[in-house]
Fold each of these.
Amino acid sequence: MTSLLTKLTVGIYGCTANLLTPAVKYHLRKRRARGKEHPQRHRERLGYTSEPRPAGKLIWIHGASVGESLSILPLIEELNKQHSDLHFLITTGTLTSAQLMAQRLPKNARHQFIPVDLPAAVERFITHWKPDLGLIVESELWPQLIFRTSQHKVPLLLVNGRMSGKSLKSWLRVPFFIRDLLGCFRLVLAQSRQDARHFEQLGAPRVKDNGNLKFAALPLCTCHEALEELHKHIGERPIWFASSTHKPEEVFLARIQKELQKKLPGLLCIIAPRHPDRGEEVLAEIRAEGLTASSRSKDEEITDKTDIYLADTLGELGLFYELSPLVVIGGSLLRKGGQNLLEPARQNCAVICGPEMQNFQEICDAMVSAGAVIKLQSVDELENCLFSLLSNPEKCEALASTAKDYMADKGREIHQIAHAVLEELHLS
């Protein structure tokens, strides 16, 4: 039961949101002018749609962006296998995720942009679609969206629930509010035991640790023509790839590449910055180290003299995971947090990560214990670790094979997650 203090807080939040509605609409118009909102479908952000609700059972699944939306595809596939008469409404908030969903969703699923967290927008959305069940993926805890959905008696599940230690501390400042917010969910399916403990600390009434959807996610897209073209230019040169790097990791990696080339002539390093719009800056930093670099965004080819190839484009990580047998995880070397290590593991890469993997701590620790990834104790170990694997292809292949097998085994947890979802629809 929602406490009086929470009701007052939600009421103030809703009144403030109503007063700010003109400012929100102005902000959305500016985003549309900058190409960050869909030019034809922008009204979906205010809860309007021209799409009819399909007849029958409708499961609404919301994932914020690309990572979350990709993770739900195998869940939809599994649910379809067990009950082919279901319909799915997928909501996301970004153009890139909408484009991916348009390419990958099955015929019984449709995509809409999630409405902004304004009372009227959310009300229009829920009233029109009337979902039979709502699944919120990971950590999208928008108050109006959740409380109003609950008020409409739509059962809610938090799927692949994620609650970092930092978020836990923040929510504990308003314990009454997060307890009531999580109370709107019939069930929280946490992606790890640590996440489950955090949700329990915050007062979620039912929590299960059913595994991580991202283990069952499909491999990232690869353009085979582009892959063949890159193979043609690279030839037999040994390769290593640093994915989703942050400043100042690129300079650090460039210096390691310089040292490795002394032992491994012809070695090529590929670097993909987490934010490709930093391409010019990164290119200048690499060249300042005396290395020859080519930029993919500028259509510069890899030549025999190219030391580092800068993959400063969007949506091509899968291409470079397919190309390189060895991957270093960015954001884990000179920054705290780390990036996704599951994607390269799924694509048969040997994976090295630095000591700073807080964003994927439990997953990383489990993979290290299984021998599926190498985690460095210090960034000073990176050069020797790379040399050891690059000079011993059999060792590199064995690490990659262990990672891929681990991913396949963990991916079977999707059956448990689908079963828990269908139980809430009384279909299991």
Amino acid sequence: MLIGELSRRTGVRARLLRYYEAQGLLDARRERNGYRDYDEDAVVTVRRVRALLDAGLSTEVIRSVLPCVRGEVQEMPEFDWCADLRAVLQKELTAMDDHIEELRRTRGTLAGYLARSPAGPTR
């Protein structure tokens, strides 16, 4: 299928599909005229990529995790627990927790500034 059809079937813009291909997340053959030709399973692959992006994973992490994702993705992907998959996901979760804690600290600092402003605290 051509990129326009894949875009229509997945709701993902062609520009993003080309980006996924450049990141090694999606494969396409090239026709003689240079057009991308995607297999039918590209629809499922794009849905898997979107689900993993929605979970906050980077395309670099998704590239390593994607071979372990199975089945059609409805809300949450199902995994074939490949070697190191749990460690990769745990590392990402720890990094997210660290980021959330940093955001809490910086939010507290900003809230402190606002509390001392002449207008008083907000929210």
